[in-house]
Amino acid sequence: SVQETLYPSEYIADLLIKLAQSPLSEKYEPLRQSAWLAAGTVVRGFASKTQDLFLAHPATRQQKEKFVRIFMQHFRNVESTYEKILAIKALGNAGLDLSVYELVQLIQDPRQPLAIRTEAVDALRLLKDVMPRKIQKVLLPVYMNRQNQPELRMAALYRIMHTLPEEPVLAHIVAQMEKESNQHVAAFTYQVIRQFAKSTNPCYQQLSVRCSKVLLFTRYQPQEQILSTYSQLPLFHSEMLSGVQIDFAAIFEKNAYLPKQLQASLESVFGGNWNKYFAQVGFSQQNFEQVIVKALQKLSFYGKQSDSIRARRVNTGVKMLQEIVKKMNIRPRAQTSNIHNAHAIFYLRYKEMDNIVLPLDMETLDSLIEKYVKNGEIDIKSFLSFFINDSDFELHRALFVYEAVRRIPTTIGVPLTISGKIPTILSITGKMSFELQKLGARAILDIIPSVASTHVTEMRFWSPMFEQGVKSLQSARFYTPLKLEMTAELKKNTLEISHKLVVPENKKTIVSVHTRPVTFIRVPSENGENETDEKTIFHPQLQMTSEEVDRQYDVLGLKINVLGNILSQWTLPKVFMTQQDFEYTHVSKNRPAEFVARLNIGNLEKTDLSEIKFNKIFEKEFDLENTESENRREFFHKMIRQIQSEQGWKNFVSFKLEAPQQFYMNTELRTVCDQSVRICKIELDWRRAPVFEENKEWTLRSELLAARPQMPTSLRQLREQPHREVQLSLNAKWGSSRKNEVVINAQLGQSVEQKKNVRNIEREFNGIPEYELLIKAARLNQIDLVSKYDFTPETEYNFARLFDLVKAYNFWTVSEKLVENEERRVSLQLIVEPMSRQYVNMTLQTPQQQVELKNMRIPRVALPTIAYRAIDNKIWKKTGASCNVDQSEVSTFDNVIFRAPLTNCYSLVAKDCSEEPTFAVLAKKMNKNSEELMVKVNRQSDVVIIEKTEENFLVKIDGKKISRTQFENYDLEMIGDNLIVIRLPQGEVSFDGYNVKTNLPLVASSQLCGLCGNNDGERDNEFMTAENYETEDLEEFHRSYLLKEEECEVENDRLSEKKNYRNKWNRAETKEEKDYEQDESEETTEKQLVKKTLVKEFSHRVCFSLEPVTECPRGFEAEKNSTKKLRFTCMPRHSKNARRFLKEARDEILDLVDFPVSYVEAIQMPTACVAY
Question: pTM of this prediction?
Answer without folding.
Answer: 0.72
